[in-house]
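Record type: monomer structure entry
Structure origin: computed from sequence
Chain ID: A
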Amino acid sequence: MSSNLSNFLVDLASDPARMDAFLADPVRILNDSSLTDDEKSAVLTRDGDRIRGALHITPWQAALPQGVTAKRPPTAKGKPKPPPGKPGKNK
């Protein structure tokens, strides 16, 4: 996950004055940030899929309940798939 972009979005969401400044002039706020050009472009689109892509969040990760983390999508039975090359235990 892009911690730079994540931190930018959290700061934006938690600071009303910064959000007001962003809404008034998003290009200036983005240019004052340390975001990459790709991250800035994603934010400017205001497209959730593009922003999740810039954050390196897959759709299945975005759908996980709050507080739940996983590195691999669940299998049909809801259990994470074993890492490649390591045998899984099926019961």
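Annotation 1: Residues 1-91 form one domain.
Annotation 2: The first helix runs from residue 3 to 14.
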